[in-house]
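Quick one:
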Amino acid sequence: MRDYDEADLKIDKPKTHAAGPVAVAVSMKRALGHMGPVRTAKTLLDLNQAEGFDCMSCAWPDPDPGHRHAAEFCENGAKAVAEEATTTRATPEFFAAHSIAELDSKSEHWLGQQGRITHPMVKLPGGRFYEPIDWDDAFRLIGEQLRSLNSPDEAIFYTSGRASNESAFVYQLFARAFGTNNLPDCSNMCHESTSIALQETIGIGKASVTLQDVYDAELIVLAGQNPGTNHPRMLSALEKAKQNGAKILSINPLREAGLVNFKNPQTPRGMVGPGTDLSDFHLPIRVNGDLALFQAIGSLLVEWDSIDHAFVEQYTTGFESWRDNVTAVDWDVVTASTGLSRHQITEAAQMLRDSKATVFCWAMGLTQHRNAVATIKELTNLAFAQGNIGKPGAGLLPVRGHSNVQGDRTMGIWERVPDHFLDSIQAEFGFDPPREHGLDTVDSIRAMRDGKASFFLGLGGNFVQATPDSTVTHLAMRRMAMTVHISTKINRSHLVTGDIALVLPTLGRTEKDVQATGEQWISVEDSTCSVHSSRGPLKPASDLLKSEVAILTGIAEAAVGDRHGIDWKGMRENYSTIRSHISRVVNGCEGYEVNVRRPGGFVLPHPPRDSRTFETKSGRGEFTTSPIDVLHVPDGHLLLQTLRSHDQFNTTIYGLSDRYRGIEGGRRVVFVHREDIAALGFQDGDIVDLLTRWEDDDVDRCADGFRIVEYDTPRGCAAAYYPETNPLVPLDSTATDSNCPTSKSVVIQLVRTGTSHACASEGTQDRVGSDEAHKNHPQPRHLS
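Output:
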């Protein structure tokens, strides 16, 4: 499934700065190529503006309305807009010319370049092609299938982070009116560890900072995060913080370009000058070493008595246990786990000691490990110890990867939504929603695999590409009686189908949404709890497109009808009706319609940030203790982290250029340290298969045909792109407490291509491993 020749792959030196003139040139080339000059101007000048539309890419917050640039977007934001607002169309004639099997043989990049889907499409039992279907017939077919289930819990309702607050609210209401809390979402795979850790320690699973706090910080800690690729507009905020005197400590296995230097395209210094140096000190930590690092830093802060005792005594509990735990830290274990020297860790700790206001930022480099929840709790301990919550220029900032994943959760997209939310649903709509917790993403795959679910509805996203253990997930999806996807463009999930499959084309953020009462607008929430409106400027790609709200209310009418007296039609015709419900159901959203109409929107309440109050079991910020969980990697193996290329967003592949890391023309590369390459008996440029075996099953998993690229990564570690490496992530390898897949902790072996039975053919894994192979493939062990 590749649309490129590996012989065209070119390797260059990694870049030492992000953005600059090249970013501008690439943005314009992609935008003009997809949209032409008129659409380019109409969309990009409206992007992230107070009266414009919100970027469908990352969830980085916008500056206040009076402080935004005319070009308030980054390179990857421009790529995202170009992909959605493309003038290319996937019509019924396109689907008639390409069977589902043929489309499934194409790469994700190729599929994405086929343009916007213009008609609702269906694959009937035994069908080989998608065919057009009327909307009414599509809704009827879905309604009949849902009503035929033995239990509502046989249905899975998945959500990506692109859905608006209005559609998310309607979606969760529909699922609960239907009778289930099976509402898995993309957060389950990315930031669920953050949500669990923060909920237990500070009482709310969200960032405790504003954008102004980033500007005002004395120290910014960037841990497990690559802002240059994953949320590039953050670079402008980091530059402003540096100009205000902040220092930056970066902690990451790879010294990414966006951690080194930023050439701001909005300034002469960025376009023709040296740019702005960002990281003052970089810790090239070994993969999965963060828990040990944070405990070691804590031990030094205790030793130096760099503790805000007044804050600790007034607002927290458990300090003494935490103090005793970090004081007893074993430095030999710390240095082995982190790959860092005591001197390096001490220098980093001194930066925290000398700062009176520290912002801690992190992303999926911390969340996708077995010990992820403990790691984030440990980071929170450091914030507690120095009183860095609830004061200017300080706090906790989990940087969300998708534009409205946080808003979806606020609106009730959660399989474990708290009882007070369900109580509000009951009071507002007059029915008692189900109280039993539903299935998250991993458990949904298990249910589909085991025949306990038979219906899947995906609101956006690309489920089978985003999830772990690709072979298991694909087989599970094919067991469904019906799969339904609400999408703008073709992706892999449309081709791994149930017996009946529907693709329902929806409006994008760039497009006008006109309903019976006139033009509508939607709202979203960013990483710092700011909620604002979004209005698309373009005519829809097809007259047959429906909005997410219109599609969801249409399905609800077909499946639930007037069972609970819910006015689905009224919500579809006027989104203010939805926002009126939101104002009475969702905490902090009182007066929602008025507040979100304000330029720049409004900020949701956050008790730890606003008043240093903590809605935890103890009513205080909770220090926690955890053992250092060291992941032991057997000899001859490496610890793999999966990551994005600079030319992709999640599973959407924009192109084949990861220029910051020096990769052009391909994606199947594995980054390995020079000494590890030699020690394993390979050379830079060799083609290998990546092989792993999960300790809890007897299965070899393989991703084949990767070129070894010599790279400055810690010894014993490796990195490669997802979704190509998702087949290596076992479904049952998940983070403790959060059930988040451990995509950043995969123990792999490099084997010469063609020498492993598990890699007999591309895209498949032999599901039975021989005893001899198992014997010769040592198992990873966790040592506590």
